[in-house]
Design a protein that fits this description.
Length: 124
């Protein structure tokens, strides 16, 4: 099933739902099932609300982290370089401040332990 349109409250096509759900309405989606030849209209609503404290950041932004990026992943290596990453030939990892990669897909390349036995985020 494919979603083709996602409308915010107040946009054309959401009026009835805004009247029904009010501030609880998050969005209206139009989804299409090619096999069944059907169009579905779905609404996303808020059903409960409570206080929440976000967890602390995994690492402070200034912490240096080690990234293990394959030798053929040249595009990713260029991205790391562009945010200030440096290659460490001894450990064969890229070293970059965590704040430069926070929230990006580069986070998945963080290595917990490197060959020398030191943990990233401490003294690399």
């Amino acid at each position: 099933m494919k979603t083709r349109v996602k409308l915010k409250p107040g946009q054309h096509g959401t009026k009835k739902h805004v009247e029904k759900y009010g501030d609880a309405l998050v969005c209206v989606r139009y989804r299409y099932d090619a096999q069944k030849h059907k169009q579905y209209k779905t609404v996303e609503i808020i059903v409960s609300e409570s206080d929440w404290t976000p967890p602390p950041a995994k690492y402070p932004d200034s912490t240096l982290v080690a990234l293990k990026i394959g030798p053929r992943e040249t595009a990713m290596q260029s991205r790391v370089k562009s945010v200030g990453g440096r290659w460490n030939p001894d450990t064969k990892v890229w070293i970059v401040p965590y704040g430069c990669i926070r929230g990006t897909n580069m986070e998945k390349f963080i290595v917990i332990e490197i060959e020398a036995g030191t943990s990233h985020g401490k003294n690399l």
